[in-house]
Amino acid sequence: MLTYHVDAGWATSWLALVAVISGVRFGLTGSLLDSGTSPVRVISALLLINGLCLMLPVLAFGWLTDVDRAFISVVLMALATASAATTSGYRGVFLWFAAAMLLPLSVAWILTAELAESPWVGRGMGGLIAVYLVFLAGLGRDAFRVFDESCRIRFAERELNGRLAVALEAAQQASQAKTRFLAAASHDLRQPLHTIGVLVAAIGLRKLDDRSREIVQMLGSVSHSLSGQLDGLLDVSKLDAGIVKPELQIESIDQIVQSHVASIEATAGQQGIFIKAHCPESCQVLTDANLMQRLLGNLTSNALKFTSDGGVNVTLKKDGRHAIIEVIDTGIGIAPEYQQLVFQEFYQIGNAERDRSKGLGLGLSIVQRLCALLNIELTLDSAPGKGSRFTLRMLLVDDLPAPVARIETLDDVNMGSLHVLVIDDEADVREGMRLLLEELGCCVLLADSVAAASKRARDCSIDMVISDFRLKGKTSGVDAIRQVQLIHPNVYTLLITGDTAPDRLQQADALDIALLHKPVSLDELFKHLHKAQNHHE
Questions:
Q1: What is the DSSP string of 231-297?
Q2: Of all residues in the chain, what percent carry a pLDDT higher than 90?
Q3: Closest CA to 5 of 55, 51, 59
Q4: CA distances in angstroms from 343 to 239, 346, 361, 365, 523, listed in the order given
């Protein structure tokens, strides 16, 4: 075709020139982009030169056949069309390249029209190519508008992502700071509260006159109230740390509901309101009875706190393969805009004065976490002045629950033969534990460090070790227990801690040592004393 009418050397030189210009353009473009300078003018000049080089065969139009001219036209128009996409229609670059090829091509068709069989074909082709160039200019403008808009969106998204990352990091730092503060405050409060609780329990075991016993009961009530609020912080920390592992068993949920409601009927009566359970059917579910009791306790406690007239109904019914528990109160209700907020930590409605009797605002936050842990669907339906309805939805099972083992009480055993080593670096805590354990009939040894505990273990017989998790310096109760176990391998061990930080809880949970959290109740302590006694029988 083309080489039949034009010297082959000319065609080869043209191809070589196009290759060199294209290579130079690509090389310079890359280096300019790497240098960070604006390459628009240089790229425009290079594309103009590139376009003019590609257009050179047009100079030979007078010696070409119609087929050759048509072939060259198709190639040049295709290159111009492709450049609208490769340059994203940027007019300062795109038009230099396209116009350098198509304008001379249009003129060439018009000037060589007389050489064609029909002059109007050449003139028509020239006009169509000119019109096509105008069309490409419009197409390039639209392509650039889309490209420009997408770039703006991308940069805006990148900026927003950057702001979001900064905000997220700030939120995480604030959350970590809050967690550290609460953990430190909780630990520092638990230490003296634990000592107070131990001393109150020790006094309560002695023979007292009625007035003294009333004072002790009031002290116990205040201590129990503060312990409950700190336990709320502990529950949140445990759930967030992922160390709460539900012990799932087939349970009669109707019995759990009825037992719980019966245990708080007197409390509701003292407030002048009622709480009733409606469980017409027996329902078996797979759940953790203790966690379920805590979940129901938080819901009913919340309902009682915000109900001054009427009462609370706890209903249980079946809905297909599900058991439905509803806690319905006639209280103040919750406006729609607050119904998500009430599940946040420390958020309370109508408690600007932070009345201690209304708690810390952790109850519903714990409920939400427990529902997620037990695979229970939780919904809230409420309106101001019309009360609230909390609905729990869980799967039913068909098997009957296993019988519950009997738990022994304080009167069932005698602790007189138990030798207990108490390890704590705070003298008040050690002395408080000594007084309580001696009231229970135990033989008590005291140590304030790992070295002192090791010496006591070498000098005396020990059945049980009760150690604080934190000790002075870099040592811990775990270190002290390990030292004692080297001398008494079969000793029963118990760690007591006031830490609520999630990382500390995970560390403690990973140990093969029983763990209690301060302040420790007499019932909890007794259970472990009983286990220690059975451990050595």
A1: HHHHHHHHHHHT------EEEEHHHHHHHHHHHHHHHHHHTT-EEEEE--S--EEEE-HHHHHHHHH
A2: 5
A3: 59
A4: 14, 9, 9, 5, 31
User: Cβ distance 134 to 82 under 8 Å?
Assistant: no
Residue 504 · residue 488 · CB < 8 Å: no
Contact at 8 Å (CB) between 251 and 284? yes
Please tell me whether the overall predicted TM-score, pTM, comes out greater than 0.85 for this model: no
Question: CATH second-level architecture of 249-397?
Answer: 2-Layer Sandwich (3.30)
**How far is 340 from 380, CA to CA, in rounded Å?**
9
CA–CA–CA angle 363, 367, 369 (5° rounding): 120
| Three-state SS at 315 | strand
Q: Are 508 and 469 in contact (CB under 8 A)?
A: yes
Per residue in 205-264, pLDDT (tens digit) is: 777 777 777 777 777 666 665 565 555 555 555 555 555 677 788 888 888 888 888 888
d(CA 150, CA 532): 71
Condensed to tens digits (0 to 9), the pLDDT of residues 405-427 reads: 444 444 444 566 789 999 988 88
Query: Which residues on adjacent β-strands are paired with residue 317?
Result: 324
Six-digit token string for 90:
């940027």
Rounded CA-CA distance 184/232 in Å is 15
Class of domain 178-243+413-537: alpha beta
CA pair distance 243, 236, nearest whole angstrom? 11
State residue 4's pLDDT score. Answer: 46
